Amino acid sequence: MNIILVLIDSVNRNALSAYCGSEFATPNLEAFAKRAWRFDNHFVGSLPCMPARREIFAGFSGMQWRPWGPLEPFDLRLPKLLEEAGYTTAIVTDHYHYWEESANGYIQSFQGAEFIRGHELDFWEPLVAVEDLPQWVKNIERWRPGYGQRYFSNVKNFSDEKDFFPAKVMTAASDWLRKPKAKRPFFLQVESFDVHEPFDVPEPYASMYGDASGRDHFTLWPPYQDAARQAEFFAQATAEELAYVRSQYGAKLTMTDKWFGRLLQTLDEEGLWNDTAVIVTTDHGHDLGERGGYGKQFPHFDSHANIPLMVWHPHLKSHEGRVEALTSTIDIFASVLEIAGVARPDRSHSKSFVPLLAGDLSSARDAVIYGTFGQGVCCTDGDWTLIQPPDRTKPLYAYSTMVPTTIDPKETAIEHGLYIPGVEMPQWKLPIASDGPQDRRAMDSEPFLYHRKSDPNQQHNVWNTIIEQRFRMERIMKDMLINYGAPAELLTRLQLPFGG
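The chain above was modelled as a monomer; its predicted structure follows.
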């Protein structure tokens, strides 16, 4: 069976009409959802972009051991496993992190790759002089120095929507599907970096949900990696500016949806639905000012952690079918392998969701964990969610066979040994400084506990009041981390003592 995996970056579940009434138009994703199985309790795993992709490629939950970085030499490679099973493999993407030094090893596992250049901070076109930047770019520069200049230098010659990234990605993917190929099944990974910021869109999208002239007054790219800068932004931002940013996110979502429709049209024209499984999901959502924050930083509330997943399987057909069982990003790995008829390697944290499509709940997850290395860990059993911040006074270590460029070790001794369960290749134990609360709401805060069904927007923290559920969720989180083989100091850092 052919397999197409579509990753559309930064998609908010509650922004899709397929999931709920939304002010944003996404008719093609809605049409696909009506054909496919819709997963209602699908969650992120390791965050953000490349840690999520490591889970997809390697079936490995990495947030306990290491931050953003390359695939490890010991990591499994999903495309290689499929190639060994007789698949033709390829990726079409504008996700420029793949060709950065800090993310080596991912695209190299495909037989073919097509890159769409120029998104976000891609080192592509020569830089435009600062004095030649238009006002909307200067508005970005105010909060993200260097970001607006780099992005504008890449897109300054774009004239209409066909020049923008979703159009190029989905058109290139459609072209690949039409190309002659060997008579064997294929695996095509299609990645659109949009709906990622900056929320820069052409007409008619720029005016769909707000006044397009707002770009001359407001930023299209609020800060969030720098907590102090984000706090400064919110201190001066008007309700009009926050609404404008949201409108342009929605505009980019609608534009991306349109070009996703081009891919669906190609599946129609090529008669692929009867022998092709299609998985559509995202790596994480993107908060749009909720709780005074942007992005996908810890704490990971459902607004960006409960993400969309829609699956078409030609042998397990559905008409608006719903899957309520818990699933996570890491489960993409085992699910793709099962669809391909390939046994899941033992050294994997992934669990296939394919049996759920047939109504088999015997292997359903009881809970899932998710988080960002060095920040906090979250756990949900579907009914309750625990968000556990770290004690930042406790030691933090990264474990890797290398010293990735994303790690800045402290000036202390670096040990080596066998630390990660199932990995026989020696790893470095790297003492590093905490990468700090990227979101100052996490600083010195107590944990959060929410009942998802009675409090779906997670407004009422009951960590101090419903003690029995707090203890129960802490035990679940602790047991899951121990089962993963997480370092003992992580449990201490999360104030979940090892053992006992």
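The domain at 2-357 is CATH 3.40.720.10 (Alkaline Phosphatase, subunit A).
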